[in-house]
Design goal:
The structure holds 2 protein chains of 2 kinds.
Chain A (H helix, E strand, L loop, with lengths): L1 E11 L6 H9 L15 E9 L2 H16 L5 E9 L3
Antiparallel strand pairs in A: 1-2, 1-3
Chain B lengths: L2 E6 L6 H10 L3 E6 L10 E4 L20 H10 L4 E4 L1 H8 L6 E3 L7 E9 L15 E8 L3 E3 L2 H9 L3 E5 L10 E5 L5 E4 L17 H10 L8
Parallel strand pairs in B: 1-2, 1-3, 3-4, 4-11
Antiparallel strand pairs in B: 5-8, 6-7, 6-9, 9-10, 10-11
Classes of the chains: A alpha+beta, B alpha/beta.
Chain lengths: 86, 226
């Protein structure tokens, strides 16, 4: 078994309104930050996972992401996995 | 007497309002702890408002795995009347008993006000005693009440006449002004507004009564055709 560090970045699916992102984007010019576009707000979920190998770890995390960590009706996710030293 | 089971999660806060409203209309109501695996002898179920399991992760995301939700799903599949109010609506969408999802309000404000609702169909367990086109004044009290769904789901809701209630003046950015929807069997209804808070003149409106009366009436013959 190996230990993997996992980052699940939860983001809204394309086409789903992101009122937090648009509010931040509208505020930035007032603070003097110009030229910013495409602000999106999501969630970052981090944990470690014991698994036989990286593929097994990814399969486990995909399962939990679909069933629990995200709502597939409105959310999508990116997965970053790397093995951590013993 | 008709028995309404009102589900109680840790973090629910509208369960007593639901019990009061139901008993005020001549029904009987029991609280059902979320850790139970049976609905007892309930004839209908209300999943009430609040912040089940703290709304952690997403509203309803953890509540849908509470032991009682298996019983609620089986009851619903058998045609039993189930109504989710506010957080209860969120729980039912997370559980897959209703389509779509509830998102943060368009204005990013927690909304606590009374809104006009139009009854769009009377062939559901929540609207059989109302009139189509009737405007009801019912309170809303939510931060994540903006209904959203895929274009395919929206088309299906239209084709099957499953938009139950619409806002007269959309307060939260819900797609197509949707305030409430039902399942294919029309026996599961979810809505963001709180009919149980509009059941007594002292509360400023009694417009919630026809809705909850419908639920009490729906508990006997479970036949709803369009």
């Amino acid at each position: 078994m190996a230990t993997f560090s996992v980052l699940v970045e939860v983001k809204l699916r394309p086409g789903i309104a992101d009122p937090q992102g648009s509010t931040i984007e509208r505020s930035l010019p007032h603070l003097g930050f110009d030229g910013i576009a495409g602000v999106k707000v999501g969630k970052a979920i981090r944990f470690t996972c014991e698994a036989a190998d990286e593929a097994a770890c990814r399969a486990e995390v995909d399962d939990m992401a679909h069933r629990f960590l995200t709502n597939p009706v409105i959310e999508d996710y990116d997965l970053t996995v790397h093995e951590v030293g013993a | 007497m008709t028995r309404i089971g009102v589900v109680l999660f840790p973090g629910s806060n509208c369960e007593q309002d639901a019990v009061e409203a139901v008993t005020g209309l001549g029904g009987d109501a029991d609280l059902l702890w979320h850790g139970e695996e049976s609905l007892g002898d309930a004839d209908a179920v209300i999943v009430p408002g609040g912040f089940a399991h703290g709304d952690y992760l997403r509203p309803g995301a953890i509540a849908r795995f509470s032991p009682i939700m298996g019983a609620v799903a089986r009851f619903a599949a058998d045609g039993g009347p189930v109504v989710g109010i506010c957080n209860g609506f969120q729980v039912l969408t997370e559980a897959g008993l209703l389509p779509g999802a509830l998102q943060k309000n368009a204005g990013l404000k927690f909304l606590c006000t009374t809104v006009g609702l139009r009854v769009e169909t009377t062939t559901t367990v929540l609207t059989s005693e109302a009139r189509a086109g009737q405007i009801l004044q019912i309170p809303i009290n939510h931060f994540e009440g903006s209904y959203t769904c895929s274009p395919e789901t929206l088309r299906q809701l239209h084709e099957e006449d499953r938009v139950v209630l619409r806002y007269v003046d959309n307060p939260n950015g819900s797609i197509d002004d949707i305030a409430g929807v039902c399942n294919e069997g029309r026996n599961v209804v979810g809505l963001m507004p709180h009919p149980e808070r509009a059941c007594h003149p002292l509360l400023g409106s009694t417009d919630g009564q026809p809705l909850l009366r419908s639920l009490l009436a729906a508990t006997s013959p479970r036949t709803l055709s369009r």
